[in-house]
Amino acid sequence: MDKKRQLEFDFEGLNGLPKDFKIKTVTDVRKFFHHLVFDRKVNFHPDDDFSEYVSIDGKTPTFNANEVKQYNRLMKQSFDVCEKNGKDIYEIAMDEFNKTFKRSKGMNGLPQGYKVKPGDHLVKWVAIFNGGGWGKNYRSFERSEGEVVSVDGDDVKVKFGSSETNLSLEKLKVGIYETIDDENGGGKDVSYTVVPEGFDVADFEEIPKRVAEEAYRNTSFDNEKRGFSARKDWEISVNNFAVFLDSYCKTKEQKEKAISLHKKFKEKTKELLISYLHSHANCISAAIVGPSKFPVRRAEKANNAADNKYNEYVEYISNAKNKYPKIIEETLTEEEKESGMTYEKKEFFRKLDQDLKLAKQISEQPKGSVPSYIRTNMNSALLSRLDTLWRNRDYETFNKALDKIKDSGLIFSKNNAIWERHANTPTSELYQSPEFKKAMDFLQTCEEKLTKERYEKDKKDIQWYLSTSLNSLWQQQRIRSIKILLQRIKDVQDKTGFELWPANERYWHLLKEEKEEVEAPSAENPEGGTIYEADGCEVVDNIEQQRVQILFPGKPSAEIISYLKSHGFRWSPFNKAWQRQNTPEGRRKALEFAKKFFPKEEKKVEETKEEIKEDNNKLQLAKAKMKMAAARLKLINMGMGDINYEMD
């Protein structure tokens, strides 16, 4: 076999099996079958040769030649072990299929292994349909919530309001619990969703009815039905996900983690679904709005945007299904808890250790023997995870991860821009890019040879050159190089007296000693929130939506709207705010706008002193009046009559 292909196989492994895996016991057979079904997602049969499996398109082989050879060898060993131990290999394969099916069933219904317990919640759906025609025509739905009182064998006693009902445990595992027909050919379909005790019960009413119906107004003949279906499907999927997570809970601590993760899942999926519905509201169908002068390009653009939102929603659910069980089963030591370690961070460092181990294996191989895409994919995935930490402002974990990578001397080269964001990398160790070197040399020339006559003649060219260099460094995210270059520009300007880079241009904000709200929220306000407020305007750093938002009490003037649009802000009808992504540049632009159009009134020092003096005089006068009123009352009590005191 080709040595290069052998190395590729070794590094990829068999997607979950050890490199030199051999089948010696029946347990090994089960591990192998579980790997095929759960890791490789293959609907296999023990008698089939692995070279016969193809992908869904019917053309591409599922396994390469080396994998076919390895899998056929393992299957032969499985037959030998089963025959030696008197086990039915087909029965073992069927058991593994059933186990995998039960674990994956949690997203679509009640798993067969789940035991309904007293205290569990039960959501009852009654779908009323008309008879006649093709299939059932559902015309209305009824929803109610109950609680499991007791479970005795197959009998489940449930309390709905003030009444109690007995249900069959076996029937609860089916999609439709029962169908009740009426005399007119119609009837009712009754179904139940079980939510384990302690978990939040999702309610379809949490998705706004108006938003869901408007989403399908221009793409469906019955937008109300489509909107209701989207809301109902969300409720059922969230409630079923609670059952899915509960199946991994064995201890009280795991149950608490599962409840917390389910709450997070519920809120995030609600946010993503509403975002998708808003996006889908821009979609149009020629069958609904008519084919005349149909805006094909605009419709295609709207469809693509909606598809991206929907894919984000589906991808989050898929990732949660794979990630959350691992978090539940993961445990933290007391030392890790005290240090602020979380399950998400522990999972991040676990993946980082895997990447470092793989990078070390690659470095030990002869140059060119390892396919380049293996390392490229690993670096790309790690950079993405680090960038997520940076955007979420988890700088502590970000710097710890880079410390670990730096100590290993693997993965990222010294010229990678990621080191410019690493707090523990000295400036002297940073890689100097060609753009940075040329710009520094250019400034050295300006400092030594630039004259007033030459400056007046080449002023625009000088600014263009510096602009090109700074923009190039910004695209590479070399933030510290930009700061060094700007400081050098400032020093040359101070020495020569020539303005090389105007004060109103970009990037100067990076040199500010006080970061304000630009680089990160302040220590007093780590969760974002309002970062500027004046009469008629409020600037909010919305961490959850990753947006910086500008709020007005009413519709702003045409001049303000034009300014906001020209600086990247867009109106959000849902949030009732002008917003853009809360990058450092976005927050800076928002603050610049607010301070320009809505400056905070600052009173002059002299005026403030006068006001303080006037307030003190009023206070002294009030005290004097109080003393005289007390004296007057004392004289009256002594029988000396009423004496009038007047004071101006």
Explain what you see.
This protein is α+β, with helices and mostly antiparallel strands. Among the domains are: 3-107, no CATH class; 337-429; 434-511, no CATH class; 528-597, Phosphorylase Kinase, domain 1 (2-Layer Sandwich); 605-648, no CATH class. 52% of the residues lie in helices and 12% in strands. The chain has 20 helices and eleven strands. The chain has helices spanning 3-12, 26-39, 65-85, 89-104, 169-172, 209-215, 223-246, 252-280, 286-289, 296-329, 334-338, 343-363, 372-391, 395-408, 434-449, 452-475, 479-496, 558-566, 584-597, 605-637; strands spanning 121-130, 137-152, 155-160, 163-168, 178-181, 187-195, 528-534, 537-542, 547-551, 570-572, 577-581. The strands form two sheets. The chain has a six-stranded antiparallel beta sheet with strand order 4-3-2-1-6-5. A hairpin with a 4-residue loop joins strand 8 (537-542) and strand 9. The longest helix is centred in the middle third of the chain and has 34 residues, at 296-329. The radius of gyration is 35 Å and the shape is globular. The model is unreliable at 1-14, 101-109, 513-526 and 640-648 (pLDDT under 50).
